[in-house]
Amino acid sequence: MTDVKKLKETMANNLKKQLSRKGITQTMMARDLNIPEMTVSNWVKGKTYPRPDKIQLMADYFGINRSQLTEELPTNIEPISPRSVALPILGTIACGDPITAEENVIGYHYASPESLPTGNLFCLEAKGDSMHPTIPDKSLVIIREQPDVESGEIAAVLVNGNSEATLKRVKKQGNTFILMPDNPNFDPILVDENNPAKIIGKAIKYTLDL
Question: Residue 191's domain spans which residues?
Fold first, then answer.
């Protein structure tokens, strides 16, 4: 293996390890650092080697020394679990697209992997007081993607032509279900053929910044 090829391979392996440790994708890093996604992809694939200024930029981004990107690291060290996992925060849902498609994402929430359940996770911002006091207004709710929930559980539900996600408690009655607010000052929403809705996930927990 030539020296140049070895350098590219070492950089690619180390970069993939750092992306995994930080719990982000190469697309997210490219956006955060304002670097073309194709450029980052070529680094990750070992096709090209970054310039020194880009190496320093990535080292600062990951909070590591440059050598942790450029030098071959020992393989007998236990890998460190990611310090945080990036969960997409969804805005308006584009009809027909996967709910976590890039065009639906307005930001990311970083959480410790030890505190999270398994499955595909995303976040929604609670708007209004309909779920007060269970879920405060403006809190960030972590959702596990799943097509159904048990009666009485809180779910993220697509309404208004599958374009808007709302958080409500699901009460099932036969083949229909009712979206119940926890706040008695709000009216329940009956889901039927004239007012369709789609469950997209189960509410797991919420966080609220002061």
Answer: 85-207
